Amino acid sequence: MGVTLEDNAGAVAAFPATSRFMSLKRNESGSELVEFALALSVVLACVFGIIDGSRAVFAEHYVVNAAREATRYAMVRGSSWNGTACTTPATFSCTATSAQVTSFVNSNIPPGIMSSKVGVVTTWPGTTSTGAACDTVNGTDSPTCVVSVQVTYAFAFSLPFLPQSAINFSSTSTSTIFQ
């Protein structure tokens, strides 16, 4: 069975196309499944993208908060500090050292943050908050001197369609030592 077409002059032309081909062309069964698969792919990509983006915001928030907390830890443990915690283990005792500040940050890492990618740099520049030289008779961690803590984290997205290179989050917090 062939298909016939009639032109304006009334001539009839026959084509070898079968009715089966024409019926397949009009058959739309299964199209909903294809549309659903495409829509689901887009929706899932968006959902997982939002989850990975939220992980990035969480990591950035952690870095900022860790720098603030580490600075506070160091500023209350200056050279004149004589708190009761001086009898506790060496990692959290008396005056703060760079290693102790790093240990403090590493002890407060939440789930989802890889400790191997966290970096901590603590400095006591020997100046006041105005930039003038401070009294360093008892060391650069004397009261009125400044302590600065920088925390970094190399974050990597886990989804293949997001950037694969690490995003480096960094936060520096500076405060005046008061004990």
Automatic annotation (TrEMBL):
It holds the Pfam family TadE. The chain crosses the membrane at residues 33-51. It comes from the Bacteria. Residues 30-72 form the TadE-like domain. Keywords: Membrane, Transmembrane, Transmembrane helix. The keyword Transmembrane helix applies. This is Flp pilus assembly protein TadG. It comes from Silvibacterium bohemicum.
